[in-house]
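Next up, a chain.

===
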Amino acid sequence: MDGGAKLVEHDVFKKRILHERDRFLELSMENIQNIDEKVLEKLKKLYEDFTIMASSKKIVGNSKLFHHILPNLIPPIDGGHTLPFFDYNNDNNPVIFIEIIKKFSFIANKINWNDIEQDNNFNTSIPKIIDNAIMGYVKYYKTSSNKL
C-alpha cells in the first residue's frame, strides 16, 4: 500500500451519500454549460459539508464521487493532471473546487460539441471529455522536453 488517498469505511460512505441524496437530486438536471452563481453556491456548500476521504485528498475524492453522481455537471479533479494544468496544488479549499468548475464551464462553452462524439467508454460526458483532453495534454508535456 502506498499511503495514498483513503476512503472512509463503506458504511459511513453509504450513509453520507444517502444523507445528501436530496441535494444530489436537486443538482441532477444541471450541466457544466449552464451553471450560474446559485448552482455554484449549492456545489460549494455540498463540497464543504461532504467528506468521503479518510485521508487529506478531499478535492480529488469528492470531485470524482460527485462526477459519478452528477456526470454532466462536475468534472473529476485529478491531483496529477487537473490540478497542475490549472496551476493548483492539492489544496482542499472549496474556492479552488469552484474555480475549477468555472474553468471547465468556460471551456465547455467554447467548443462546438456537434463535432465531438460522446460514447460509453471514455467520452461519457462533456466534463469527462474535457478532463480527457487535459490528461492527454499534461501527459504529453510530462513526457516531452516541453514544459507545462
About this structure: Residues 10-143 form one domain.
